[in-house]
Amino acid sequence: MTEKSELGIFGGTFDPIHYGHIKPVQEAAKKLSIAKVYLLPNQQPVHKPNASADSDQRLAMLRLVCAEYPMFSLDTRELERPEKSYSLLTLQELVAQHPGRRIYFFIGMDSLNTLPDWYQSERLFDYCHFVVTRRPGHPLAPAVQSKFAHRIIETPQQPPKNETGNILIFDTNQVDVSSTRIRQYLRQQCSIEQLMPAAVAAYINAEKLYQ
Ligand code: ATP
């Protein structure tokens, strides 16, 4: 990665990681010519139930994905923080470490719909652009659309002129899968092989996760 290249980041619980994470981000990153996206596993957020896989297991699955997809690398800073982890702090650290580089923060549409509730959400736009991929069953909420109308660029054909502050919504192929559904499938002993890379499915089976 050259010093001035764009920095992609993609946060999530990844419990477990699946093709709904990987494929839309891969597609949108390609459209923006972003060569590297850092996976930022977070601690289990308060509004989610306890993870069924522990941090080491979630990390092991992310490492398998990074080995198979060279565009992804791992950034464990949010897992390593002793206190509750805020995206604002992560972005401030990244900007300090990579001055002059644009940051593209990848999220799914369901996350965009909750963005107004994130800690100091307006300040996040001082540090990054958001790149949003569509997700089945999660249309853009009208209230969020009107709140962020001045920031949203649908189906962008080129990178934004501003260094930060836009929400780029891409029409990537939608992948109808969630970690919740995968955990359910495993409890019901249904196949998960089509929903994630084979190495991740093999790890889940070997570790007997989510059963
Ligand atoms: P859970 O079912 O446990 O809530 P999840 O499948 O939503 O998990 P997360 O790790 O919470 O996965 O999501 C991380 C990020 O990936 C979020 O920004 C989310 O919107 C996005 N994402 C997850 N699944 C998809 C999908 N199928 N399509 C597009 N974006 C997705």
UniProtKB/TrEMBL annotation:
Record carries keyword Nucleotidyltransferase: yes
Keywords carried by this UniProt record: ATP-binding, NAD, Nucleotide-binding, Nucleotidyltransferase, Pyridine nucleotide biosynthesis, Transferase
InterPro entries attached to this UniProt entry: Cyt_trans-like, NadD/NMNAT, Rossmann-like_a/b/a_fold
Catalytic activity: nicotinate beta-D-ribonucleotide + ATP + H(+) = deamido-NAD(+) + diphosphate
Similarity comment: family membership: Belongs to the NadD family.
Name of the coding gene: nadD
Keyword tRNA processing on entry: no
Name assigned to this protein: Probable nicotinate-nucleotide adenylyltransferase
SUPFAM superfamilies noted in UniProt: Nucleotidylyl transferase
Function text: Catalyzes the reversible adenylation of nicotinate mononucleotide (NaMN) to nicotinic acid adenine dinucleotide (NaAD).
Domain Cytidyltransferase-like: 9-184
Name of the top EC class for this enzyme: transferase
GO molecular function: ATP binding; nicotinate-nucleotide adenylyltransferase activity
Pathway assignment: Cofactor biosynthesis; NAD(+) biosynthesis; deamido-NAD(+) from nicotinate D-ribonucleotide: step 1/1
GO biological process: NAD+ biosynthetic process
EC code(s) of this entry: 2.7.7.18
